[in-house]
Amino acid sequence: MSTLKMLIKRLAASGAIIIGITMIAFLLSFLIPADPVRMLAGRSATQETVESIRHELGLDQPLPVQYIKYLNRLAHGDLGRSYKQKTEVATLIWSRLPATLWLMAGAIFFELLIGIPAGIYASAKRGQRGDKTAMVLSFIGVSAPQFVVGLLLLYVFANLLNLFPLGGYGSFLHLVLPAVTLGITGGGWYSRMMRSSMIDVLQQDYIRTARAKGLGEPKVVLVHALRNAVLPVIAMIGLDIGFFMNGAVVVESVFGWPGIGQLAWQAIQVIDIPVIMGVTLVAALSIVIGNFLADLVMPLIDPRLRVR
Amino acid sequence: MSLFRKFIKNRTAFFGAVVIAGIILAAIFAPVIAPYDPYEQFFEGLTLEGAPKPPSANYWLGTDLLGRDLLSRLIYGARTSLIIGVVANGVAVMIGTIFGVLGGYIGGWIGGAIMRFTDLMMAFPALLLAIALAAIFSPSLWIVALVIALVNWVWVARIIYAQTKSLKESEFIESVRSIGAAWPRILFIHILPHLIPTIFVWSTLGISTTVLLEATLSFLGIGVRPPTPSWGGIIFESQSYFLDAPWLVFFPGIAILLLALSFNLVGDTLRDLLDPTQRGRG
Amino acid sequence: MRRNLLTLFAVLALALMVGTPVMAADIKPGGSIVITYKDDVSTLDPAIGYDWQNWSMIKSIFSGLMDYVPGTTELIPDLAESYVVSDDGMHYTFKLRKGVKFHNGRELKAADVKYTLDRTCNPKTQSPGAGFYAMIKGFDEITAGKTETLAGIEVVDDYTIKFELSRPDATFLHVLALNFGFVVPKEAVEKWGQDFGKHPVGTGAYSLKEWVLGNRIEWARNPSYHHQGKPYLDTIVFEIGQEPTVALLRLQRGEVDILGDGIPPARFVAIMKDAKYKDMIVEGGQLHTGYVTMNVKMKPFDNVKVRQAVNMAINKERVVKIINNRAVVANQPLPPAMPGYDNDYQGYAYDPAKAKALLAEAGYADGFETELYCMNVDPNPRIAQSIQQDLAEIGIKADLKNQSQATVIAAGGEPDQAPMIWSGGMAWIADFPDPSNFYGPILGCGGAVKGGWNWAWYCNEELEQKAVGADSMTSADQQAERLEIWRSIYIDIMKDAPWAPIFNEQRFTMHSEKVGGKDAYFVDPVHIPINYENVYDATIQ
What we know:
B: mainly alpha; 72% helix; elongated
C-alpha cells in the first residue's frame, strides 16, 4: 500500500476518532445529573426565565438534534460560547493553551534530561550496582504520584530554599517545578527505554568496529551509539501527549498553572457544556496528533517496525 | 529453577512482594494495629486556633485537619487503596480481555470496529473521562473502582488483541482448526491458556496504575466518600495547610509511592519471567 | 468670662481639627494600587456578572439609579437625583442627574435606563438577574418572549423616567442598586454583542483601560465621574494568576497592595498572630450564613422535634475552629450585619443530651440513617465531617455525599433526594442588604419548587402572608415596622427549625500600608474586597 493511501486512511481514522470523542463527551455532559441552565440562570431566576434561557440555548431540543447542530457549528469552526462567561470558547482555550503547551514542552525537556543520561549510565554499568540503582530509581519515578511530587518540590525548593516561586505563571522560573514534576514520571519510562535501546545498539557490528579502531569508550558510547539509540526514545515523545493531558489537570491544580486542565475542571463543576466540549476536543486532538506523529516517525527510525 | 525461586532471587521484586504483603497485613489487621479510631475527631487533636498537630508521643504521625490521628488513618487507608486498586484492575483486565479476545479472534470488520472503539477510548483524555464519570455516578468505594476500571481497560485490550491475533494466525491454531474444532473449543482450550501469562502480569502491573489513579481522584476531591480514609483524600483535605504541616502530604505520599512501586516491581519481574518477548517500554 | 469662653472655643476648635478624620476635600488624588487574583475575571457585563469577584468591579465601572452610602447598607440615590413614590407604592418617578457621561463621552439619558432594564429582562441576554425585576409591569410578557420591552418603564423626557409595578414592593429600590440595573450604553452593547463583558463601557468611577486575558486588567480614573473629586486613585491594576500564598508573600514584600482572594487559610493563623500586620488587616461581617437544610418533605425531617434535635446536636464552635475562627457562630437565618437581625435571640444551645431526648420523644430513640450532601471543594467536606460526627453522637448516622456544586444544587431542587445539605460554597450571601432577600428563594414557598433553592422545601403559608405584607410596606415611615415584622418571621422560622444555622463568615481584608481609607471601605458589605472608589494612596498625602 502506498504511503499516501496509508496516510489518508490514517487521517480518516483519526477524524472518525475525533467525532466519536465529541459524541461521548456530549453524552457524558448531559448525563451529569445537574442542570446547566439552572446554574447560569442564577438563584433568583423565575421558572419562566429558566425555560426561556433553555429555549435560547437550544437545550430544550432532543439530544441527537443538539448534537447534529453542534457538529454543524464545529464544521464552521464555531466552538460556541461559554454558558457562564459568554466569551467564545475558542478565545478561552486560546488564552490558556500556551500555558499548557509550555508545560508540555518543559516536561518533555526534563524527561529527556533525566531519562537519557540515566539510561546511558545504566547501560554502561549493566548488571552492576549502578544499573540496579538507576533502574530502581526509574521505577520510583514512574510510581510516584505526581501531585505528591509536585507538593514536595514546592515545599522544599520554593518554600524552604526559596529558589523558585510558590506556584503561578509568568517566567521560566515558574515553569521549572511543574515541568520537573511531570518530567519525573516520563524520565522514569525513558531511562528504561534508553537503557535497553543502548544495550541493543552497543551490540551492533559497527560499534564493535569502532571499538576495534581504537576509539575511546566515551566517544563510542556518546557519539556513535547514542546517535542511534536515542531515536526510538524521541519517537515515543508523541505518545506522551496523552499522559501529559492527564497530568496537566493535577499539576495545574497544584501549581496554580493557568492551563486548559484547570479550565476543564472548572467547567465541569458548573456544567459549562461548550467549554467542556471544547477542551475535550483540543485534548483529544493533541493526543491523536501525538500518536500519529509517533507512528509516523517510528518506522522511519526503526526499520524493524516498518509495516510489511 | 522454578518460577517462585527465580522470583525470590530478584531482590527488587522480593522487596516489592514483602511491602505488598506488609500493606495487606496492615489493612487486614488494622483494628488491631491502629492506635486510634480513624474516624474520631479529637478535641486535643487540633491547636486552639484549629491547626493540625505535628508528630508527637500521643499521635505518632501527627493529626489531620479534623484532629484525627494520621497514623490510624494511614493504616485504614491501606484498605481503600488495596480494595480499589485490586477490584478496579480486576474489572479492567476482565473488560480488556473480553474486548481484546473478541477483537483479535473474530477479526474482520467486527474485530476492526472493536479495536477502533478501543482506539477511541484511548484517545479520550483519561482523567477528564474519570472526572466526568465521577460527576455522573455519586462516588462510593465501588463506583470509584468502576470508574477507574472504565478508564484503564484499554491498555489491556490492546495487548490482548495483539496476542490473540497473532495466536489465531499461528500454525498451531491453523492445524487445530483444520481438524474441525469448533470455535469455543479453540478459544477456550487453545488460545486462552496462552493469554494467561499476560493476564497475570497485567493483573499485577495494572494495580500500580489503579492505585495512583484512585489517589489522584481522591486528591481532586472526587474519590471515595469521606470520612473513609484514603491516602489521596488525606492530601486533598490537607492542602490548605501543607506549607505548615508538610507531614500530612509526606506520609500519605510515601504510602502511595510504596504501594505503586511494589506492584510495579513485582509485575515487571513477572513479565520478565513469564513473557520475555513482551518487554514493554524497557 | 469672655476670655475663658474664647479659650474654650479655641481649645474645642483645635480638638475638632486634630480629631477629625481626613475630609474628602483634603485627600490628594493620584497613585496606583495593585490587587491580586488567582482566577481571571469571567465577565464585566453588568447583566451577566454574578460572582463575588466581578460584582464590585462592575460597580466601579458602571452606575445605577440607586447605590449605597459607602461602607454601609444605607440606600442613597446615585444616577437619580431624586425620586418620588406614589402612595400605593406602585409608581416611582426618578429625576436623573444631568451631565453624567459614559466612558465613550456620550451623556446618559433616561432612554439608557430603559434600554438597560429591557436588556436585563430579555431572555436572549440570559441574565441571571432578570428575576429581581419581576415586580415591574410587563415582566411576564418580556420573559415569555412576547415583547422586547417592559411596559412598566416609561421615558417621560431625557431626564425623567417612570416605573409602574404590578405590585408594591419594598425591595424595589434595592434591586435598582443591583448590578443588573446598572446602566449600559446601547451603542457599545450593539457593537460588541456578547463580548461586551470583555469591553465594558459604563458611567462608573473607573474605565477599563486594558485587559490581557488571564494576565492583568488595568483601570483608569474616569475624569468626568459624576461624584466630584472621586475616585482618588489614578489607576488600579489587577494581576491575575497569582496564587494566594504567593500574593501574600508579595504583599509582605510591598509588591502588591490588596489580596483579592483574601489571606490564604494556611497562613491565616500565623498572620493574625503577628503584630506587624495588625494595622494592615481589617475585619468585618458579611451578609452570609452557612446552614444545614433539612428537607421537611423527607422522613424523618418532617417531624419538627427531629429538626430541633439536629440544631442542638451540632457543635458550632468546633466547626468555626476548623475554619480557623474565620466566622462567628450563627443562631438564626439572618447574619448580624443584616437589618432585622435579632440581637437578643438565643437560638438552640449546643446540648447533645437534650437533643437525644428530643429524638426519643419523636420516636427515634435509636436514631436513624440519612444523608448529608456537601460540595466537594475544601473546606466543605471537612465541615460536613465535623457535623457528621456530631450527628453520630446522638444516633443519627449520616452518609456524606460530597459532589460537585452543580450536582448538589440539582439534588436540593428535587423534593425527594437530599435529606440534609450543608450550604457551604453554594449559599447564601445576600444579593442586597434587605431581610427579604434571605426569604424568598431559600425559605419561601416560591423557592420550594423543582429546581428551586429552598432545599428545606419549607413552605409556611402564614409566614408567607406576613412576608408579602411586609414587602408591600413601601413608605418611609413604615420601614421600622417592616423590619420588625421580618425579624419576627425569622424567629418563627427558627421555631419550625427547617435549618440549622451554623456560622456567618467574617471577612478579613489585608492591605498594604500604601492603601488608605476608612476601615469600613475595606469591609464594605456591598463592595468586595474593597470599595474601589473611596480608597486612596496614603503615600502621597
